[in-house]
Design brief:
The protein is of the alpha/beta class. It has a single domain, classed as Alpha-Beta Complex (Inosine-uridine Nucleoside N-ribohydrolase, Chain A), CATH 3.90.245. Helix content is 39%, strand content 18%. It contains 15 helices and eleven strands. Strands 3-2-1-4-5-6-11-9-10 form a nine-stranded mixed β-sheet, with helices on both faces. Helix 4 packs across helix 5 and helix 5 packs across helix 8. The structure holds beta-D-ribofuranose (BDR) and calcium ion. The site of beta-D-ribofuranose has 15 residues, from helix 1 and helix 7.
């Protein structure tokens, strides 16, 4: 099987860093055409620097990185540095990378790259607020329709929110962008908190990654350990059947899905995003009943197999 052409749009971020490490590592399975960055967990200059630094540590300077939009479509940026540390990579020393981003023109890069490939071949993974993707859809809707799939980390249903009672961070940070993406009629697969809370970076995972001994595995282990040391009220879920034995590994699930889709269960659904209310900003209303939904616009991941995610990480960080 030839490697899957992929673009990763991200806001590193400790869990984005692990997702990037996995995507950089899986070179036999993923043809990583480029990485685009967005403002999110920390400001754009920092997410871009962090992506370049992770690329360097992974030894993948062949992959271009393009900075995207510095602000959500219609609002001021809201950072999540409580969860990621002031520089975005936890306690990891923030050095300037040897090589920076290729350009600050992520949207143009997306358009050119998707247009250059045959239709329905390029996958897009999105692990931050969907600002860049919404801008792509607004600027070049026909280009966006050429994507094979858009695999997103964002939203919450059964689990409730993690930034407010109702909302998951990536959707909350730019609800207008999420709304545009869900209305775009693409093939959309969504890893909300219901799925990512099933994949937790336990101490055993941290130890196993550290034992690999490679610089990129050590970085990933550091990211998990940082998240695991967060105050319990930041990482806990209130679900009694999901004890918080480690912080959720949200963003790596997206890359794991591209590598092993059989490890996840999907349910067709309709997703609508709240953009008006102050109280429930960024809430994802997810309807599984087709008769009520009208038409489905996404696939919601309902079940994830954490053992598969761990084995992929161990394989590709080695
Ligand atoms: C999402 O929000 C960010 O803080 C993480 O990187 C992840 O993409 C989880 O809600
Ligand atoms: Ca992220």
């Amino acid at each position: 099987m030839s490697p899957l052409p992929l673009i990763l749009d991200c806001d590193p971020g400790v869990d984005d860093a692990v997702a990037l490490a996995l995507a950089f590592g899986a070179r036999d399975r993923l043809n990583l055409l480029g990485v685009t960055t967005t403002a999110g967990n920390v400001a754009l200059a920092k997410t871009t620097r962090n992506a370049c630094l992770i690329r360097q540590i992974a030894g993948r300077e062949d992959v271009p990185i393009h900075a995207g939009l510095a602000k959500p479509l219609a609002r001021e940026a809201i950072l999540a540095d409580d969860f990621h540390g002031p520089e975005g990579l936890g306690h990891y020393p923030s050095a300037e990378p040897r090589i920076g981003a290729t350009s600050a023109a992520a949207i143009e890069f997306l358009i050119q790259t998707i247009e250059a490939a045959p239709p329905n071949t390029v996958s897009l993974a999105v692990t931050g607020p969907m600002t860049n993707i919404a801008a792509l859809i607004q600027k070049a809707p026909d280009t966006a329709r050429r994507l094979r799939e858009i695999v997103i980390m964002g939203g919450a249903r059964r689990e409730g929110g993690n930034i407010t009672a109702s909302a998951e961070y990536n959707i909350y940070a730019d609800p207008e962008a999420a709304d545009i993406v869900f209305k775009s009629a693409g093939n959309i697969i969504v890893f909300g908190l219901d799925a990512t809370h099933q994949v937790r970076g336990t101490k055993a995972w941290v130890d196993a990654m550290n034992a690999l001994g490679t610089p990129i595995a050590k970085l990933a282990a550091d990211m998990l350990a940082f998240s695991n040391a967060l105050p319990a009220n930041l990482m806990d879920t209130t679900e009694p059947d999901q004890p918080a034995t480690g912080a959720p590994l949200h963003d790596p699930c997206v890359i794991a899905y591209l590598l092993a889709p059989e490890a996840f269960q999907l349910r067709p659904c309709r997703i609508e995003v709240e953009t008006q209310s102050t109280l429930t900003r960024g809430h994802t209303a997810i309807e599984f009943r087709e008769a009520v939904a009208g038409a489905f616009n996404a696939n919601w991941v309902s079940k994830a197999d954490p053992a598969v995610v761990l084995s992929l990480l161990l394989r590709y960080l080695a």
